[in-house]
Design brief:
heterodimer, A: 593 residues, Rossmann fold, 4 domains, five-stranded parallel sheet, 21 helices, B: 193 residues, alpha/beta, Pyruvate-ferredoxin Oxidoreductase, domain 3, six-stranded mixed sheet, 8 helices, binds iron/sulfur cluster
Chain lengths: 593, 193
């Protein structure tokens, strides 16, 4: 029975994978991709797990696929950088069971550190890539990708963007279809699965043949669609940009929608160009399609009009192409109002009672240089905490510090700060290198027992797997000792004195010292929640010292006093410890703040 | 063919924006129109500013539109109304909850929360409607249903009240123990405008 459901793009991918009988769904959490694995986990049948990082996820899924199971791997765009090593070689080796890698880009960097355009990975690694435009296509293309992957012996990339992953729309699904795990026979095949140089050279040629076969497969070519409605103007586009083009121009101009963005079907592009007088290419981020269309000898215009950075939208597309002489359905109306300037920003902040706050507050006061990492605690860089000097990528917190330590004045130390999930992701190697190369950094793990930023996923330190099963609970302290640290100073996340002492001790130490700051994320069920605090105005000297904690429950009131919003207060007690005038106290029941 | 209508919600992480926009979308689907919506998660959840868009009509391609293209902006907080008002079309509808949530620079005293937001909003070429949804929700005994109060007001303002049985849509979207209060919130919102 066909039924319509409203699904996000991510839910569509999970649904498609489930219908395709996927055996293993695995990924590393990262906005905007996280809900694919989470949705799949709620469906009966497949094995679903969080891996420690994206490379491990891809390799596991590949292993499953060698045995004949279908594997789905998910990650955010930068995760593919981590998984790139196996990706390039798996393309040569080919598959047994189908392998689909869903990777979600984040144009405009809503929740990311860059806006890399992952279509280039497909070209670079020679891995076919499908790009859906809607939740319906997310479901359809995922199913198709598994079929094509097995038929042509290639892994498949499925490229999503924030506005596809996190958009919701109608999806027609077959409710009668149940889950049936797809499985193929495994046969030992050393020339295929062991990439010795001699084997790899042979597989390199097989890959070319596989890609050529794929490109002559009517089902693969079928996802590239021509909509000929005008002989005057034709627009070549793909993914979310297709939505913007259609919203802006409706059926006014002809459109070629490329569903298969690698390998590109030059035939359909040439045919399309032959049927219109002017060709435009509309795509978000890099001129990926445009470069290829031009290489085919087709005259076209694209980035001359369309912005090469940040997210597009229908109005931006319309406005850009008006200058090229195109006529949108609705003339973009100048907004009723210009953007209002000079209003207070509303940046994200660490929650009231967040276990990361104290460390950054003290790091600033103890004047240590801090290299941060990716997670909630990156917010420790924001004023007033202002506690991070450098932060680039996941797992880089220790390693960048290693380099900084080579050029510091005698006796100074740099601190590298990771979260627990990041530590297991790829941070541990930096700690090993610190010992190996005798670099005097102080590695710090802010252990909140969760992957908090992306919505509290399990990780090797939480003691539970994705499906809630108990498992070994890793302990950063034992890991530090095992790799060669002489001492590991453990401080409670709300113990200001303890953390300060640990920082000072580590700074002065001549042996290898690591620090762990411990307390569960405040949003976890079993998190400590103390009694709310209040400020006795009578004792407040308006020194504003507590405001430097950047706690959202504390605010400056008229007259220069500070007050605590007792509903927002998590009772962590930091402000009480920070106040030298003893103006902060536990709120008495029934009293007024 | 009826032109596509576009609604945008703005507010602060934790105010219940996602639920409000999902219920709106669900109701519209039941009414048989095409709907696409978009949300931004992630960093935005840590008390940052959050927006969603819901577009509906006979055939909707894009869930996202740019400045100057929104028909109705619903802001769950006053400062956010000011931040996103330029997304509205000329003469668009602006529904604002009379609620002030100081952002971090305000909390620390680096800047002050603008005092004249309502006057400034009233001076723009949009049709403005300000309600106190928080007070209404508190009166109903659960401050968290503020989002549904606003949803009720939106449904009425947008002329969608008769489209589907919104009570049924809301009832199915919330946990059974909160059904009653949410239905009363919806009703209260409808009567506020
Ligand atoms: S979610 Fe947890 S770790 Fe993240 S800011 Fe809030 S309390 Fe801190
Ligand atoms: S005790 Fe102080 S620092 Fe902690 S949450 Fe409450 S107001 Fe914020």
């Amino acid at each position: 029975m066909q039924q319509k459901m409203i699904l996000s793009g991510n839910e569509g991918v999970a649904r498609g994978a489930w219908e395709a009988g996927v055996g293993l769904g695995i990924g590393y959490p990262g906005t905007p991709s996280t809900e694919i694995v989470e949705t799949l986990a709620k469906l009966e049948g497949p094995l679903v797990a969080w891996a420690v990082n994206e490379k491990v996820a891809l390799e596991q899924a590949y292993g499953a696929c060698v045995t004949g199971m279908r594997g789905l791997v998910t990650m955010k765009h930068v995760g593919l950088n981590v998984a790139a090593d196996p990706l390039f070689t798996i393309a040569y080796m080919g598959v047994n069971g189908g392998l689909v890698i869903a990777v979600a880009d984040d144009p405009s960097m809503h929740s990311s550190q860059n806006e890399q355009d992952n279509r280039w990975y497909a070209l670079h690694a020679k891995v076919p890539m499908l790009e859906p435009v809607s939740s319906q296509e997310c479901r359809d293309y995922t199913r198709l990708a598994f079929e094509l992957s097995e038929r042509h012996d290639v892994p498949f990339l499925l490229r999503l963007v924030t506005r596809v992953s996190h958009s919701r729309g109608l999806v027609e699904i077959d409710t009668a279809a149940g889950y049936r795990r797809t499985s193929r026979r495994y046969e030992r095949n050393v020339p295929k699965f062991v990439v010795l140089p001699a084997h790899a050279r042979a597989r390199r040629l097989v890959l070319e043949k596989n890609l050529a076969n794929l490109l002559s497969d009517p089902e693969a070519r079928g996802v590239n669609k021509m909509e000929i409605t005008s002989s005057e103007v034709g627009i070549i586009t793909s993914g979310a940009s297709y939505n913007y083009v259609k919203e802006a121009f409706g059926h006014r101009y002809s459109v070629l929608k490329m569903g298969l963005v690698y390998p590109l079907d030059g035939e359909i592009i040439r045919e399309f160009a032959g049927r219109v007088q002017r060709v435009f290419v509309v795509e978000e981020l890099d001129p990926y399609l445009e470069t290829h269309v031009r290489a085919l000898g087709v005259t076209c215009e694209g980035k001359k009009y369309i912005s090469p950075f940040f997210e597009l939208n229908p109005q931006a597309v319309a406005t850009s192409l008006v200058s090229a002489g195109l006529e949108p359905l609705e003339r973009p109306d100048p907004a009723a109002v210009e953007p209002v300037a000079g209003i207070p920003a509303r940046p994200p902040i660490l929650c009231a009672g967040c276990p990361h706050r104290a460390f950054f507050y003290l790091a600033r006061r103890e004047k240590v240089m801090v290299v941060g990492d990716i997670g909630c605690y990156t917010l420790g860089a924001m004023p007033p905490l202002d506690g991070i000097d450098v932060s680039a990528c996941m797992g880089g917190g220790f390693s960048i510090a290693l380099g900084i330590s080579t050029n510091l004045p005698e006796g100074e130390k740099v601190f590298g700060v990771l979260g627990d999930s990041t530590f297991y992701h790829s941070g541990i190697t930096g700690a090993v290198d610190a010992v190996f190369n005798r670099r005097p950094i102080v590695p710090v793990v802010l252990d909140n027992r969760s992957t908090a930023m992306t919505g509290h996923q399990e990780n090797p330190g939480t003691g539970r797997t994705l499906d809630g099963e108990p498992t070994v609970m890793q302990d950063p302290e034992r890991i530090f000792r095992a790799v060669g640290f002489d001492r590991v100073l453990v401080a409670g996340a709300y113990d200001l004195e303890g953390i300060r002492n640990a920082i000072r001790e580590a700074k002065a130490a001549r042996d290898r010292v690591a620090i762990i700051v411990k307390a569960p994320c405040r949003l976890l069920k079993d998190a400590r929640r103390g009694p709310a605090r209040e400020i006795v105005t009578h004792d407040c000297t308006k020194c504003k010292n507590c405001l430097r904690l950047g706690c959202p429950a504390l605010s400056l009131k008229e007259g220069g006093y500070v007050a605590i919003d007792t509903h927002a207060c998590a009772g962590c007690g930091l402000c009480e410890q920070v106040c030298r005038h003893r103006a902060v106290r536990v709120k008495e029941k029934g009293g007024t703040a | 063919m009826a032109p596509t209508k576009r609604v945008m919600f703005a507010g602060v992480g934790g105010q219940g924006i996602l639920l409000a926009s999902r219920v709106l979308a669900e109701g519209l689907i039941r009414a048989g129109v095409d709907v696409k919506s978009t949300e931004v998660h992630g960093m935005a959840q840590r008390g940052g500013s959050v927006v969603t868009q819901v577009c509906f009509g006979e055939r909707v391609y894009s869930p996202l539109v740019g400045p100057g293209a929104i028909d109705i902006l619903v802001s769950l907080e006053k400062l956010e109304a000011l931040r996103y008002v330029h997304f509205l079309k000329r003469n668009g509808t602006l529904l604002v909850n009379r609620r002030e949530i100081p952002s971090l620079p305000v909390l620390t005293g680096a800047v002050t929360y603008p005092r004249d937001i309502e006057e400034r909003l009233a001076s723009f070429p949009v049709s403005l409607c300000v309600i106190d949804a928080d007070r209404e929700a508190e009166r109903l005994g659960n401050p968290r249903v503020m989002n549904v109060v606003l949803l009720g007001a939106l449904v009425r303002l947008a002329g969608l009240a008769g489209l589907v049985d919104w009570k049924e849509v809301v009832a199915e979207a919330v946990r059974p123990q909160y059904r009653e209060v949410n239905l009363r919130a919806l009703d209260a919102g409808m009567h506020l405008v």
